[in-house]
Amino acid sequence: MRPLLSHVSIDGLSLMNKPWRRQSLSAEPQAGFTLLELLVVLVLLGIIAVLVAPGLGGSLDNAKLKTASRELLAALRVQRSAAITQGKIITLSFAADEPSYRIDGELVTLAAGLSVVYQAAAGTTSDGGLAQELPDGGNNHLVFYPDGSASGALLQLRLGEGLRYIRVDWLTGAVSLFDSLESPIFVEPEPR
Q1: Highest mean pLDDT of the ranges 7-11, 23-27, 31-35, 171-175
Q2: What CA–CA distance (Å, rounded) separates 161 from 65?
């Protein structure tokens, strides 16, 4: 007696004759990639990654510097506004070679690797540069007064190869951000 399903097939597969092996119905070659082609593509991607990766590190440092400088800019503007609204003198102290500063004694830490160089100023020239450097005695204090003025300063922020400047005008207390001493960066205007 013959099995009942010996002559039945589905899509070219015999149900009783080696069902695990598919019989090809067409003479066309199979589509796909060979192992060699995949390995060549992976090697090329690896070479590109090795060439591009070092360039990405600098842009990451630059992005961190931009973020840190904008955060410090905002903090200085907040302290100036607080001096005006509270009617009191607010002092910020910058420690030499440390990524931190103090606001009335309270420590504020900046981004890791960021260096801040403080330079006191008595005034500015018409092109925005410093007219006169004052001896600060190493105290590195920036003072905001209740009338909106400040002691004046130029802060140099450096992270890796990147460099930015924050200038605090002594007369108006206005806080500005610069990529270089010649070119101010447009940042939203300070609230009056």
Answers
A1: 171-175
A2: 10
User: Which residues contact residue 183 at a Cβ distance below 8 angstroms, ignoring those fewer than 6 apart?
Assistant: none
Q: How far apart are CA 150 and CA 91, in angstroms?
A: 10
CA dist., res. 153 & res. 140, Å (int) = 9
Name the CATH topology of 60-178: minor pseudopilin epsh fold (3.55.40)
Residue type, 154: L
The three-state secondary structure class of 156 is: strand
How do strand 90-94 and strand 115-124 relate by DSSP bridges? unpaired
pLDDT at position 149, please? 93
Q: What SS3 class is residue 148?
A: coil
Q: State the CB neighbour count (10 A cutoff) for residue 134.
A: 15
- Using alpha carbons, select from 128, 143, 135 the residue that is nearest to residue 181: 128
Instruction: Give the span between the Cα atoms of 140 and 101, in whole angstroms.
Output: 10
Give CA–CA dist 113/57, Å, rounded.
14
Whole-prediction pTM value? 0.61
